[in-house]
Amino acid sequence: MGFKPLHDRVLVRRVEEEQKTKGGIIIPDTAKEKPSEGEVIATGPGARNEDGKVTPPDVKVGDRVLFSKYGGTEIKVDGEDMIVLRESDILGIIEDGKKAKKAA
User: Fold this and answer.
1) E strands of the chain, at which residues?
2) Which residues pair with 26 in a beta bridge?
3) Biggest CA-to-CA distance, the chain
4) Which DSSP letter does residue 94 get?
């Protein structure tokens, strides 16, 4: 891969949501929202604190994360759509690897 994030930035590949509803209805691409869940592909070394020391990021490559819907910058890396986020735009790590449930 030809991209390495700097400082506290994280490169994330969006995880596509299910194409069908539980009732079997297929959702067209135009009606779907962009997922706010993804997999961490690369991380920067971390942010510098007031003392000048680098604080390593809390997320690591391979983590499945939930991030704010409008955060980050969309880019193409090796022909694949990805998003570059600040670590602070990441809301949390999904620990069990299962899909996050949306609130009703």
Assistant:
1) 9-14, 37-43, 47-48, 54-55, 64-67, 73-77, 80-86, 90-93
2) 20
3) 55
4) -
Specify whether the CB–CB gap between 41 and 62 falls below 8 A: no
Which residue is listed with tokens 């680098």?
Answer: 54
Query: Strands 80-86 and 54-55: what pairing?
Result: unpaired
Mean per-residue pLDDT of the chain: 79
Q: What residues make up the domain containing 86?
A: 9-16+31-93
**Domain harbouring 79, CATH code:** 2.30.33.40
Model's pTM, two decimal places? 0.72
How does pLDDT run across 56-65, given as a tens digit for each residue? 888 999 999 9
